[in-house]
Amino acid sequence: MKKLLKFETSTCQPCKVMDKTLAGMGLEIPVEKINYTKDPDLFDQYGVSTVPTLVLLPSGKKLMGAKSPAEIREWLEGA
After folding, report:
1. Is the pTM of this model over 0.90?
2. CA-CA distance, 77 to 79, in Å (whole number)?
3. Could you tell me where the beta strands, DSSP code E, fall in the chain?
4. pLDDT digits (tens, 9 = 90+) for 55-69
5. Sequence-distant (≥ 6) Cβ neighbours of residue 25 within 8 angstroms
6. How confident is the model over 3-46, as pLDDT tens digits?
7. Which residues contact 72 (CB under 8 A, 6 or more apart)?
């Protein structure tokens, strides 16, 4: 089963934009938010050093930075 991890920080403005983008896309894939303050070990585990970053499980494929809905869909389709 596919799952999307969204890596973020609470002060990251592009992360907040991505929240709105993802919410408006109506994705059928569950999205789990990972906050650096609460889960820094997960950032290390997935090799994330930039926020926002999306990680698609189980493949581990990454998409870094705030993206448009079209860019996110294209990335998901290629996974």
Report:
1. yes
2. 5
3. 3-8, 31-35, 53-57, 61-64
4. 999 999 999 999 999
5. 69, 72, 73
6. 999 999 999 999 999 999 999 999 999 999 999 999 999 999 99
7. 21, 22, 25, 54, 63
The token duo for 72 is: 């996110």
Tokens of 13: 């403005």
Whose tokens are 């983008």? That residue is: 21
SS3 labels along 37-54: CCCHHHHHHCCCCCCCEE
Whether 59 contacts 5, CB under 8 Å? no
